[in-house]
Amino acid sequence: MNYIHKIVVIAALLSSTVAFGQLTEDPDDRRGQGQDPLRTQTPEGRPLPFGQRLRFGGGINGFRFGNPFSLGASPVVAYQATERLLVGIGGSYTYTRYKQPYYVPTTYNQYGARAFVMYEFIPSLISNLYLHGEIENSTIQEKVDGLGNVQASLTAPLIGLTYMQPISRRFGVNLTALYNLNYSDNALARTIYGSPFVLRLSFF
């Protein structure tokens, strides 16, 4: 009986240890210890799986009612490469319509794609402040009633800062201020960007 009793006790201890490890695998469990969750590791120091490092989100852009009417969306997928480095890709689409009587009826369809890198560079002083760099390509199609279609594309390198207010380990509100290094004061650049400065509010 002593032999059986020892086996039962050992099995109970092992199962308790396994259960404890499973319960503490979620990085959010660190909140109970007064610490922020790790972004790429479990509390035990194991690397998080690829899927748990992904962030999904985006934003709404070009929001205007009246004349012109404009509305757009910009989805984003980001990957937490290290505790301080995020890399990602995004897309954008904006529809704009100018109407009579103030304008010749004109429609703009603007498509974009971008790749970006964000690096938290001074976490000991200001946490969640990131250096932000990206390459964005935008194509705009202009249709003027009675005059036909025009299409043009523009590629822009953008640099600046992003401040992220975390909501959860994999989601936050992002305020981004960027400068367009390739901005030229021409009709195409003014139509797509308006100025060399780009401000964004996004969620991921």
Domain count: 2
The total beta strand count reads 8
Q: Structural class, please?
A: mainly beta
- Computed over alpha carbons, the radius of gyration is 25 Å
Task: List segments where confidence is low: pLDDT < 50 over at least 5 consecutive residues.
Answer: 6-24
- Percent in strands: over 45%
Helix content: 10-25%
Q: What sequence of helices (H) and strands (E) makes up the elements?
A: HEEEEEEEHE
Largest sheet: 8 strands, antiparallel
What is CATH's topology name of the largest domain? Porin
Keywords: Signal
Protein name: Outer membrane protein beta-barrel domain-containing protein
Signal peptide: 1-21
Region (Disordered): 24-48
Précis, in short:
The protein has 204 residues and is mainly beta. It is built from two helices and eight strands.
Q: What does this molecule look like?
A:
- This protein has helices at 2-23, 187-192, and strands spanning 54-64, 69-80, 85-98, 106-120, 129-144, 148-168, 171-180, 197-203.
- It is mainly beta.
- It has two domains: 1-47; 49-203, Porin.
- An eight-stranded antiparallel β-sheet has the order 1-2-3-4-5-6-7-8.
- A hairpin with a 7-residue loop joins strand 3 and strand 4.
- The longest helix has 22 residues, at 2-23.
- The protein is elongated.
- This is Outer membrane protein beta-barrel domain-containing protein.
- Keywords: Signal.
- Residues 24-48 are annotated as: Disordered.
Secondary-structure map:
Elements: H1 2-23, E1 54-64, E2 69-80, E3 85-98, E4 106-120, E5 129-144, E6 148-168, E7 171-180, H2 187-192, E8 197-203
Antiparallel strand pairs: 1-2, 2-3, 3-4, 4-5, 5-6, 6-7, 7-8
